[in-house]
Every structure is written in structure tokens, then in C-alpha cells.
Amino acid sequence: MVNDTQIKPGRAGSRRTLAYDYAKILAGTLLMALSVDLFLVPNNIVAGGLTGLGVLTHHLFGGGVGLITFVLNLPVLWLGWKHIGGTRFFIRTLVGVVSFSLYVDLLAPLLTVPTGDRLLIIFYGGLLNGVGLAMVFRGRGTTGGVDILAQMAHKWWGVDVGQAMLVMNVVVLSLAGLVFGLEPAMVALLVAWATTLALDAVLHGLAASRQAVIISEKHEEIAASIMQNLVRGVTVLEGTGGFTGEPRKVLYVVVQRHEAHRLKMRVEEIDPHAFVVISSPQEVRGGYPMPWRS
User: Fold this and answer.
1) DSSP 3-state helix, strand, coil percentages of the chain (rounded to 5)?
2) Which of 31, 73, 216, 282 has the largest CB neighbor count within 10 A?
3) Is residue 4 part of a domain?
4) Is 80 part of any domain?
């Protein structure tokens, strides 16, 4: 019989986290496969990377897009295992590649193409692909393909990863233009753009917060007003004027997007000449609650 003291803490949590990771990978590849089967393949739209090569090969010679993509990924998987991430990387990437390939080929005969409208293809195709890819990334997985090749190019030849991926995708889309014509290739570029927007939105959020940097001689009054009226914490930084060489107090505060206007009004009421910079942070985490907030 095992009592509570014999159970190692954290093991169940780590297993649960691992299960969540793989669930995210499987759900993400499902969304990506739906994008391919519903919007891209039926309309001769080529995604970037090895999936795009799979679509081209399917169109020219037949065969399942998923199976072709899987075969193309085999040498890439081996390279990634040997030179980049080891066993853990290999297993997660293998799950992503296999599940995506199976989803694409198993779902294709069961689905009905919803539209041939280019605008809907760009929006929904890019949305499904981007959200799915973001879920795979959140599960700490990959779907193989050109991202691994780009990392290899960076490791071996010092090429920037983003530039390497861009070159590879341009090659694939150029081949698509030769096979399908210019218009589908142009649509594919817009699908890639929509995918990037959806990916960034899921991974980094829609910038619901705003960060403000405030420099003013009345910094104490401004900080007190923000904490009292907006109920937001303020960090006071030490700065030095580059021109005058005089010490300055710099206020840093993060507020919700809808509070940004109120913040500007509070600052302007106290010091109309205050220097204020408001921007969108990529991600906001942590912080300390205000002592009087429930």
C-alpha cells in the first residue's frame, strides 16, 4: 500500500503537463490539416515549406498530400534529431509530423469544400493554419519542415533563420507559380501573411495592455494619481538627462488598453508638458497586486 508520503511531488504534475503538451500538438495539427483539406488543396493554393511541396507533388503525380509530406520530412527529422534537439525534440516533432500527415489524408475524403472565394480562403485558411501552428508551438512541438532546415543552415553556415526560411518558402511558392499560375501563388502569399497574424495573436495576444514611460518634474503627483485613480502600480526608475546631465525620475506603468486614455488625461491634468511614451508590450506577466485591491 502506498501512502501520500511515498508519492514523489511533481511527478503527477509533470505527467499532466506532458499530456497537455501532446494534446496541444494533436489539436494544432488537426487545425492545420483542416486548413489544407478545406481551403488550400482543393483550390490549388500551396502553403510554404514541405507541405507546399507535398501539394505540388500531389497535383503533378498523385498520391496523398499527407503521405508525401511525411516522406519528405523523414530526412529532415533525422537531421533534427542528430544535430539540433536530440530524442525529446525528435519525439515531439515526430508526433506533430505523423499526426498532421494522418489527419490530412484521413479527413480529405470526408470533408466538403466550403468555398472557392479567394478572400474566404485567405482568411479562414490562414486562420486555421496559424492557430494550429501556435498550438503546436505552445505544446513545445514542431511540424518539421523548413524550420528545421533553416536551423541547420544557421548552424552550419551562419545564415539567419528567418532569412533561410524566407528563401526556402520563396522557392516553393515560385514552383507553385510555375505549376498553378501566378494568381494562386499570390493568394498563397496572402495566406502565409494571414497565418503569421493568427500565429502571433495566439502566441503573444492581441496587445490588450499598454505600457507607458513618463518623465516629469511632478512625478510624485502623477504616480499618486495613477495609483489612486487607475489602481495601477507604478515603478520609479532613476534616469539622467542626456543633454542637461541632471537626474530625472522616470515612471513606468502598465495599464489595460481601455485605460490608456484615462492615463493620458491624468498626466496632462498634472503636467501638460510631461514627456509620455505609450506603446504595446508583446506580453505581460507577473507583478504585485495593489495592497488595497481585493
Assistant:
1) 65, 10, 25
2) 73
3) no
4) yes
